[in-house]
Amino acid sequence: MLSGFVVDDVHVAHRISILISVFGVLVSMALLMLAIREYRTGASAVWIGAGAAIFLSALYALVQDVRRSRTGPSA
């Protein structure tokens, strides 16, 4: 009976992790848009590179979280 609660807790933890990753992707997209806007006004191209790196790492984290939630419980 107790093991059912543990499995439910794991699923809830995975869903919370995915939700945090989604917010991370949204924030990183906003930062990337801000970096592009700043570059157009004359800022360094490093801002675009940094924004792209942040976005890609947040997207990678989201993909990993989704894959982890779709796999069954590990033994």
From TrEMBL:
Record keywords: Membrane, Transmembrane, Transmembrane helix
Membrane-crossing segments per the record: 12-36, 42-63
Q: Protein name, please?
A: Integral membrane protein
Organism this protein belongs to:
Streptomyces tricolor
